[in-house]
Design goal:
metal ion binding; L-ascorbic acid binding; eight-stranded mixed sheet; 9 helices; four-stranded antiparallel sheet; Jelly Rolls; Iron_ascorbate_oxido_reductase; 336 residues; single chain; iron; alpha+beta
């Protein structure tokens, strides 16, 4: 079935109580059944990045990265107005006619992840996520291909370039704190994932209203390939993380950034920091959107457990390999 017909079928907003079979997940993964509803629901840690006591800030980030693999940051330095403009530009793009959005579609046969598309590829169990997306790089300049940056709305390029500038400052602070939390010098972790060649991959996830959000998922449970993921959500809840065997909803905090520890940081820390298992749910009446930036090494950059963190008592738990090879194995569900 061609892409447009599938999208029209999958993302129809018609008042119906049914969705196509390929979007209905097994009971073991359906949100209505598996979301934690206990009397006291644990909350993802929230960290104030303006904390003047550096040691206290480092400890909070380190503990959250070990215990949860995810945390939210407030007072991070990115203006609330800029976040609103970023969200507005992304929303306006997804409100365009389908033909206009497809002008930015991923190039057929390309190995690149950049471009507009739909997560309509089947998982190995034959199920699909209820989501559209736009993917492109925002840093470093040598990696940017403006072919995939929408020209409409006209503000799109300006706001994303401004956001990338602020994002770099936040990312440097996060890597510094994570390094110090491992007893390393401040620069170590960032350099270990590429330094100034670190790739900033922006993705806009668009989850249309779904008539049966109890049966569907936006994105199935996964950990991120990245070193870190820095995410801006909209006001519609949907991010869930697995904590102590339970799926926990992430609280919406206006203008907060949600920080995911990704696979590469888990590898570098030899398992001391953990890559968070997470998934997304959808809403019956509202559109959910998110703006994650995936911070990834260059493709041929080798990542492995840091020598400072391994010894006879703590042998390497992961193999060192090129990020390209790690990505290939993970996407194709091959042993690492």
């Amino acid at each position: 079935m061609e892409l447009k017909r599938v999208q029209a079928l999958a993302f129809s907003c018609l008042p119906t109580e049914t969705i196509p079979e390929e979007f209905i997940w097994p009971e073991t993964e359906q949100p209505a059944i598996t979301t934690y509803k206990g009397p006291v629901v644990p909350k993802i840690p929230t960290i104030d990045m303006s904390e003047p006591n550096r040691e206290k800030l480092v400890q909070a980030i380190s503990e959250a990265s070990q215990d949860w693999g995810i945390f939210q940051v407030v007072k991070h330095g990115i203006p609330g107005d800029l976040i609103s403009r970023l969200q507005r530009a992304g929303r306006e793009f997804f409100e365009l006619p389908q033909e206009e959005k497809e002008a930015y579609a991923k190039i057929p046969g390309s190995r690149s992840i950049e471009g507009y598309g739909s997560m309509l590829q089947k998982d190995f169990n034959g199920k699909k996520g209820w989501v559209d997306h736009l993917f492109h790089k925002i840093w470093p300049p040598s990696s940017i291909n403006h072919q995939f940056w929408p020209k409409n709305p006209p503000s799109y390029r300006e706001v994303n370039e401004e956001y990338a500038g602020y994002m770099r400052e936040v990312v440097d602070k996060l890597f510094g704190a994570l390094s110090l939390g491992l007893g390393l010098e401040e620069h170590v972790l960032k350099e270990a994932v590429g330094g100034e060649e670190l790739q900033y991959n922006l993705k806009i996830n668009y989850y249309p209203p779904c008539p049966r959000p109890d049966l569907a998922l936006g994105v199935v449970a996964h950990t991120d390939l990245s070193a870190l993921t820095v995410l801006v959500p909209n006001e519609v809840p949907g991010l869930q993380v697995l904590k102590d065997g339970h799926w926990i909803d992430a609280e919406y905090i206006p203008n907060a950034l949600i920080i995911h520890i990704g696979d590469q940081i888990e590898i570098l820390s030899n398992g001391r920091y953990r890559s968070v298992l997470h998934r997304t749910t959808v809403d019956r009446n509202r559109e959910r959107m998110s703006w994650p930036v995936f911070l990834e090494p260059p493709m041929d950059f080798v990542v492995g457990p840091l020598g400072q963190l391994v010894d006879e008592q703590n042998p390497p738990k992961f193999k060192s390999k090129k990020f390209r090879d790690y990505m290939f194995c993970k996407l194709n569900k091959l042993p690492q």
